[in-house]
């Protein structure tokens, strides 16, 4: 479900929206991740939020562990100082990671939400995600917690993060509310969920299905994939853009960026947006200028050949 821009003057664009929760949430197709916002002062954070809104971003991703809670606090303080109304913001936060373990107990979920509500200075959260799987999960407890949060109006929608299909199915057996999002690591250089689909029935490493076909599963179930670290390679090893470790990839991205008149960051995000799964990338920049550059991704559409050119330039081979 898309909301495209109307006819605009040349050089002017509006960020597109996607419909989450069967269209109940009209959210920007790019989300601002707030993990690093605690590094800013309140004025810098306010300027970043205002820039996001000006570019069409209305969806902001948090977690109770970001900055040990300071990211949520600073976001709320900055938004209040800027006079930004709650109705202008869609707030997503995550819970379940604790020092040294994961915790999806009813008690912890309820306590975590109360903490996020207080730090975010709001009486409801638009989307709550369970943050990384807890192997000791009691899905009945999760269901009880979700019911209490939903009935009280404290959480409007629910989802998961970093979960495979069977983990989601286990929760869905007990949870009444739809699980509308799954936040997963995905970038041009982290394409595990895509690679296996190209190499079905082959005796090579890339044919190994390591995630239960999570990409196809989410498409079948109408779950929005939210790629995190879309500029990273490895597990927080660094960014691939302008990195000499990836000469062929950067040459191809720079070539397409020049041809389309956009920054290289826009091409990297456009590559994700081109996928018909209708993903919602989480971008964690704290730079206003970089955020503006990234949002240009919503204004371009890569062709099928261009998408595959980028995929191959990242070192991937097709069978």
Structure write-up:
The strands form four sheets. This protein has an eight-stranded parallel beta sheet, with helices on one face. It has a three-stranded antiparallel beta sheet with strand order 1-2-3, with no helix packed on it. It has a two-stranded antiparallel sheet with strand order 7-8. The longest helix is centred in the middle third of the chain and has 15 residues, at 106-120. It is globular, with a radius of gyration of 19 Å. The protein starts with a strand and ends in a 6-residue tail after the last helix. It has eleven helices and 15 strands. It has helices at residues 42-55, 70-81, 106-120, 139-151, 165-174, 192-198, 214-221, 247-260, 264-273, 288-295, 304-313, and strands at residues 2-3, 17-20, 25-28, 31-33, 59-61, 90-95, 97-98, 101-102, 125-131, 155-161, 179-185, 224-228, 232-233, 238-239, 282-283. α1 (42-55) packs across α2 and α9 (264-273) crosses α10. β7 and β8 (101-102) form a beta hairpin. 38% of the residues lie in helices and 18% in strands. The chain is an alpha/beta fold. The model is unreliable at 1-12 (pLDDT under 50).
Shape: globular
Largest sheet: 8 strands, parallel
**Helical stretch count?**
11
Strand order of the largest sheet: 12-11-10-9-6-5-4-15
Spatial gap, N to C terminus? 33 Å
Q: What is the helix content?
A: 25-40%
Class by alpha and beta content: alpha/beta
Mean pLDDT: 94
Based on DSSP secondary structure assignment, what is the total number of beta strands? 15
Q: Flag low-confidence runs.
A: 1-12
Please write out the topology.
Layout: E1 2-3, E2 17-20, E3 25-28, E4 31-33, H1 42-55, E5 59-61, H2 70-81, E6 90-95, E7 97-98, E8 101-102, H3 106-120, E9 125-131, H4 139-151, E10 155-161, H5 165-174, E11 179-185, H6 192-198, H7 214-221, E12 224-228, E13 232-233, E14 238-239, H8 247-260, H9 264-273, E15 282-283, H10 288-295, H11 304-313
Parallel strand pairs: 4-5, 4-15, 5-6, 6-9, 9-10, 10-11, 11-12
Antiparallel strand pairs: 1-2, 2-3, 7-8, 13-14
Helix pairs in contact: 1-2, 1-10, 2-3, 3-4, 4-5, 8-9, 8-11, 9-10
């Amino acid at each position: 479900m898309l909301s495209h821009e109307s006819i605009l003057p040349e050089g002017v664009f509006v960020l597109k929206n996607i419909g989450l929760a069967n269209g109940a949430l009209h959210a920007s197709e790019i989300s601002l991740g707030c993990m690093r916002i605690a590094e800013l002062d309140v004025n810098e954070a306010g300027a970043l939020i205002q820039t996001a809104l000006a570019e069409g971003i209305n969806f902001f991703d948090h977690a109770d562990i970001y900055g040990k809670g300071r990211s949520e606090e600073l976001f709320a303080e900055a938004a209040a100082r800027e006079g930004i109304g709650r109705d202008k913001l869609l707030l997503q936060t995550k819970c379940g990671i604790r020092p040294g373990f994961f915790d999806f107990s009813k008690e912890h979920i309820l306590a975590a939400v109360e903490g996020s509500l207080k730090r975010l200075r709001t009486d409801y959260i638009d989307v709550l995600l369970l943050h990384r799987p807890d192997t000791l999960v009691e899905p009945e407890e999760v269901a009880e917690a979700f019911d209490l949060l939903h009935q009280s109006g404290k959480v409007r929608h629910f989802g998961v993060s970093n979960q495979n299909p069977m983990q989601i199915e286990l929760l869905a057996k007990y949870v009444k509310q739809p699980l509308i999002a799954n936040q997963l690591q995905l970038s041009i250089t982290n394409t595990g969920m895509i690679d296996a689909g190209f190499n079905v029935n082959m005796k090579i490493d890339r044919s190994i299905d390591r995630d239960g076909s999570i990409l196809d599963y989410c498409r079948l179930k109408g779950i929005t994939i939210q790629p995190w670290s879309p500029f990273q390679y490895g597990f927080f090893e660094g960014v691939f853009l302008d990195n000499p470790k990836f000469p062929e990839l950067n040459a191809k991205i720079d070539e397409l960026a020049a041809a389309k008149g956009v920054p290289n960051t826009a091409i990297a995000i456009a590559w994700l947006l081109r996928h018909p799964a209708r993903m919602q990338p989480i971008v964690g920049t704290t730079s206003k200028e970089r955020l503006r550059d990234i949002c240009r991704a919503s204004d371009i559409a890569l062709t099928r050949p261009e998408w595959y050119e980028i995929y191959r330039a990242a070192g991937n081979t097709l069978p």
